[in-house]
Amino acid sequence: KEALAECPLPSAPAPDDEEALQALVSERRLDIRAAEARAAGAEARAALAATTRIPSLMLGAGYDRDMEGDEAAMVMLESQLPVFNDGRFRVAAAEADAEVARIDADRIRQRAVIDARRAVAGVAAAYHHAATLRDRTLDSFAACRRLLADAVYAG
Question: In angstroms, rounded to a whole number, what is the distance separating the alpha carbons of residues 37 and 108?
Fold first, then answer.
C-alpha cells in the first residue's frame, strides 16, 4: 500500500465530451482553419457573383472650369442592365465552388476528429499499460520482500 501511494499515476488527459474534443481540434489544427477560410472565401465569391445579376445604377455630378474661364456643371447617370448575360452560370459555378469548399472543410474536420479520438484512445491505453506494469512491479516487490523477510526469520 505504501509503495502504491508513492507511485501514483495521474489520470489520462482527455477532453470532457465530444463538443470539447471538436472545439480542441478546430482550435489547434491549422488545416481545419485554412479549409474553413477557403469555404468562407468561396461563399463570399458566390455572394458577389449573385450581386452582379442585379441591375446597377450610378449617379454622379461634376464641375469643370477651363483656362478661359468657361465653367460647366455635369450630371452623369450610368446603368448596367444584364441583358445578354444575366450571370446565372457565374453564380452557379461560384455556388458549386462554395459547396465543394464546405464539403472539403467538413472532410478535413471529420478526419481530424477521428485522428484525435485515436490519439486519446492511444494515450488511455498507454496509461493503462503503465498502471498494469506499476502494479505488477509492486506485486513482485512485495513478494520478494515477503520472501526476504521469511528467509531472515528462518535464519
Answer: 13
Please report which residue ranges of 17-87 form alpha helices under DSSP H: 18-28, 30-51
Q: What's the pTM?
A: 0.62
Report the 10 Å Cβ neighbour count for 99.
14
d(CA 140, CA 143): 5
Please answer whether residues 87 and 56 qualify as being in contact, where contact means their C-beta atoms are separated by less than 8 angstroms: no
Tell me how far CA of residue 33 lies from CA of 99, 112, 145, in angstroms.
17, 12, 57
pLDDT, tens digit (0-9, with 9 covering 90-100), for 130-154:
888 888 888 898 899 899 999 988 8
Residue 119, H or E segment: helix 88-154
Assign residue 57 a region: left if phi > 0, alpha if psi is -120 to 50, beta otherwise? beta
Q: What does the alpha-carbon distance between residue 26 and residue 42 come to, in Å, rounded to a whole number? A: 20
CA gap 28, 122 in Å, rounded: 19
